[in-house]
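Observation: inputs received (chain + tryptophanyl-5'AMP).
Thought: call the complex predictor directly.
Action: predict_structure
Action Input:
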Amino acid sequence: MNKEIVVSGIRPTGFLHLGNYFGAMRNYVKMQDDYPCYFFVADYHSLTTHPNPQDLKKNVFRVVAENIACGLDPEKIALYAQSDVPEIPELYLLLNMLAYKGELEKVPTFKDKVRQQPENVNAGLLTYPVLMSADILIHRAQKVPVGKDQVQHVEMTRNFAQRFNNRYGAFFPEPHPFNFGSEPVKVPSLDGNGKMSKSENINATIYLADDDDTIRKKMKKAKTDMAPTEPNSTMTEAVENLFQLMRLVSDEQTVATFLKNYNDCSIRYGDMKQQLAEDMVTFIKPIREQAQALQEDEQAIRTILKNGAEKARESAAKTLAEARKLVGIHYY
Ligand code: TYM
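Observation:
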């Protein structure tokens, strides 16, 4: 087994979607056989938006069930809730001393949140990348499978790791974003605006819990453009997005056929969207059904989380003990 350690997390803020799958979870499943992996539900991170306490547990359990339905095997990895590992917030506290207000205020995801929710710009939101760094560094990870939107947070983690190392001695390895065989991906939304998301543009996002008809309806409304009139024209963003989605869920032959139709101007976007809808249905149905079945067995999920927390704490405790010693907090 490779020695490089893998860490990644997902916030329990809504239903998981194709963006989460192709940006992150597909990599988790591929990596679990070759690396020591720590995958977690980022429940502390979700508190920045003050979720209803009654909903939180259900959402955490659903994220666990959906990850397993996608192929994660809790026997092979540590699958846990962030809040079950108290070493993470303790490392977060140490790292907060090395994180500066100015740099945190400049982070694009923070600036977006300030625009979206000006009434709730709390300190947790500002220090979100520091908590994320603690999630990663607590296991001294080197590989972080994430989508494109999280790449900058991993860069900041590298900065904080370097800063710690410069001040206290070489200890943390530098983590990097990871996607098998290519750059991190951004799965586009169906309305031509930005990316698929757990809580925004619900009708332009395909969720792993969507039923067959919902998928077909959403695909029917997906944005397209005028058909090309000149052979081999450059694609508009909306059309490029459809091809991108098709490359993810359809077979190569199907993609090649529609590409040829595009290039010789015979493409009919209605047909393409219908084909894409059917391929998404085929892809999602088994995941949805298995995730539903798993969620009915709460006891099984509790056991998975408990075992996962034990594995994660074992590794986390070692890192924290060393980090405290290096900082000088070591009295007896
Ligand atoms: P979150 O919960 O928003 O998303 C979970 C994972 O899904 C990826 N993702 C996407 N990838 C491609 N296209 C999309 N449309 C798309 N939407 C989401 C995200 O990049 C992510 O990999 N801050 C993180 C959670 C986190 C974390 C960590 C991740 C907390 N601590 C430590 C890695 C390591 C977040 O909010 O992801």
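Thought: report the result.
Final Answer: The domain at 6-185+298-327 is CATH 3.40.50.620 (Rossmann fold). Strands lie at 6-10, 37-41, 78-81, 143-145, 176-178.
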